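Q: Got a minute? One more chain.
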Amino acid sequence: MISNAPFFLALRYLRPKRSLVSIISLISVLGVMLGVGVLVVVMSVFKGWQVEFKELLLGFEPHVVLVQDARYTGELPEGVPEPERSNWREVLKQMKAMPGVLSATPMAENTIAARTADSDPEGVELFGLQDSPDNGLMQKLSKHIVEGSFDLKQDNIIITDKLAKKLGVKLGDPLSILASDTIRQMIKDLRTAEESADPQAAQAAKDEIVVLPRDLTIVGILRADTAGERCYAPLFVAQELFNLDDDVSGIEVELADPSQADAFAEALYDGDTLPLDWNVRTWTMEHGSRLQSVENQQSLMYFLLFFIMLVAAICVMNTTITVTVQKRREIGILTALGSRAQQIVAIFLAQAGIVALVGIVLGLAGGMTVLHFRNDLRDFISEATGRDFFPQDIYFLSEIPSQVQMVDLSFICGLAIVLCLLAALIPAFFAARVDPAVALRD
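A: Always. Here it is, folded:
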């Protein structure tokens, strides 16, 4: 019924029987299935993690931040005086006019200590933003609100759910805020007072140290796992906390294409648009080590998974060696009847190809099933072992991501077939060189 003799004989050799050959063939299929399934799961999860991590960063991180130095620290040519401090409003106008810029808004940033009457202070980074309809960063952050609203019109503050849990606060509660510079100055004044030789003068100096915190009302709570761990307040509140008067810490720029952030920064440095007392940082600079870590882990994992497929191919080689040994007399008969060497090789290559195809189909089905129930399996394993294998604090994602790409699936299937055929080619080549007289006599 099948005119192709090599394919016909390969199917006959693989027909399930209670023999060593059928058991080894089953093991080979299982090896290919496990190799393909693991590759599908790991490559999809890593690809999804890489994509989701970038999208997560872009969901709350400013694309480009222009920071004005308190004093110019760069190298100047001899005889050139230090430039005067530029006006941030002029720089803001220039940024808004740059091509590819969606929005540019002033901001004030620093660290603060937030506390309630019943809690210890918690250090956190605070961004002071201007409440305006064209503030791209505020529009991005508004999508992560769990409770309340992103209201920056009064003495308000927006905190994360993680900080709210630490402080034991809820929507509408007041928070006492102290800037880090104020705390440092207070500690410095206390040390100076304690170093005084006169105890009465020291005590008088301590009594004069009065630090009044700024009370802000919680009007919004953000998701820490998707919006980072910063807090946000109106720009005028942050200016007062950080003693900036009418100045700002920098300018936040949102781009139409976030991937061009580094090119945008280089263009600012190379051109004459940016004054000398301004520096630029991008979202890739802020999180470059994390992004590089993801890519390095992905490359290392692919390297290790290649060896898993190599082990599966070795299983196919063992099956081919076993079949060639057991079918030695049949090979001799075929050779004596006039079969060419390439026809003998084709029999065992067809056998390896069938094993690879069956293993690939089962591996793809198993891998897709695991990906579909990946979060349920994560929860089950965590409950069974008491360990979280995908903690949010490390991966910054509440669920295991996944992104299946046809290019990756094609690469996995192609790699499995090529390795299996190459593994079967060596024993098949030597089997085809058997002398028929010797094979029939044995």
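A: The radius of gyration is 34 Å.
Q: Perfect, thanks.
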